Amino acid sequence: MLSNIRIVLVQTFHPGNIGAAARAMKTMGLTNLVLVNPRSFPDEEATRLAAGATDVLENARVVTSLEAAVQDCVQVIGASARLRSLPLPHFDEPDEMAEQVILNAANAPVALVFGRERSGLTNDEIRCCTHQVSIPANPEYGILNLSQAVQILAYETHRAWRKRAGNDFTYQRPLDATPPSREQFVYFQDHLGRLMQQSGFLTQPHARTEEQLQALFARAQPSRKELSLLRGLLSAFEAHFPKQP
To answer: What is the CATH topology of the domain spanning 5-163?
Structure first.
C-alpha cells in the first residue's frame, strides 16, 4: 500500500531540499519519489542531506512535466499554502487527506504533489490535481520548508496506514521491556511467599496478603529485567536468614 503513494516535487530549486524530502519520506515508509524538472539532480548536497535515505534518491524518477508524473494516479493531491479559486475538493486537515489516500492506495497509485520553495504550485499545476490540502499553521507565520511539509503529510499518511487493520507495523519497544513469562512470574511469587514466611511477616495461615501482593505486581507489569532485579533483592534478603533444617 505505501509503495503506491508517490511524492512528487515540482521544480525544486535547492537540491538539499530533495535530499531532506527523501529522508522525511523514508522515515515514514515512503520510497516512491518523482522529480519534475529539478534545477540540479543528482547533486552532492541532496545526497548529504538525505542522511541514509540515498536509496530513495537513487530510485527517484525525473520527468519533464507534472502530467507525466501523475498520469497513472487515481488521486493527485496538491499541497498548497493558500486556497485557490479553482473548484477542487480541499482538505482542511492532513489527517482527513491521509485517510482517503490510504483507501485509494490500496488498489492504485496516488500522488502528493509539492511545488517550488518560493512560489508553490501554479494554477495550471493545481488543475492537474484532483484535490488540494493545506497544513494548518500559525496564520501570522505559516511558512514551512519543503521537506517539513513533506514530513507532515508523510507522517499523517503513515499514521492512517498504522490505524488500518492488517498492517504489519510493529511498535518499537526497549529490549529490556519484554514482559516475563507466566512461569517466571510464578517463580517470583513463590520466592516472595517463601521469604515472607521465613521472615515472620506472614503469621496468619489464611491471610490474603500474598494475593494482594500478587495483584499489586500484576498491575505493575514488571519487565523481565525488573522481575530479575526483584528476585535478586529477595535472594539478598534471604541470605541473611538462618538456614532451614
So the answer is: Alpha/beta knot (3.40.1280)
